[in-house]
Amino acid sequence: MAKVTIDGTEVEVQDGINVIEAAKAVDVHVPHFCYHPSLTVVGQCRMCLVEVEGMPKLQAGCSTNVRDGMKIWVWNEKVEKARQGQMEFLLINHPLDCPICDKAGECPLQDYSFNYGTVESRYGEVKRTYPGMDRTPIGPHVLQNMNRCIHCTRCIRFCQEITGTSELAFFKRGASTEVGVFPGTPIDNWMSACVTDLCPTGALTTREFRFESRVWNLESTESVCNGCDVG
Ligand code: SF4
Ligand code: SF4
Ligand code: FES
User: Fold this and answer.
1) Other CB atoms closer than 10 Å to residue 63's CB: what's the count?
2) ipTM beyond 0.90?
3) 46 CA closest ligand 3 atom index
């Protein structure tokens, strides 16, 4: 076990877990996009930056493992400034689609934008868009809007590491990088629609649910799934 201090609260956590998981022990949420506990850590969205005593630069909470005696700040001025900058950067090219986006109401990007973003952007240039890629069916259940993608690679890693089918990949380079399927290989595995849950934006949505309802109008109820014998 490791004794760490997170935002001034001392807590004992399992040695070697990352800062995002350790912070949960004191009910502190570390904002993150690319990290998911069931997938490998890639540390590429930089949303999870935290300050660690003794380290000159902010550290990525997903790829920093705790050690005994560590002092971590998830919320202080330096971290919040970095977080705000990262949100501004991610939103530079993001469309103002929330009113027509199926993810609205359950979208981490939207929530973080409200909570940690700024009202105004300093970016005055033309936004990057992906012409013709705003409603692409990439599988029987999945529709893609590349303009909303923040390149977190969760969907790609899910298909590599969980289903083992690897239908999705990055194509092109730099600012033009796209997520897509290989020609003639739609994303059609037995859990393909899960990528729409996993995606932290409305870049991937389910074709069946498209424009059916706003999520805040839905009600949850106990039920059994008849998709397989697990129930
Ligand atoms: S992905 Fe999220 S932030 Fe972007 S348009 Fe959809 S709801 Fe809004
Ligand atoms: S489509 Fe969604 S999950 Fe995939 S890289 Fe883009 S934002 Fe991430
Ligand atoms: S969650 Fe840590 S860099 Fe993306």
Assistant:
1) 15
2) yes
3) 3
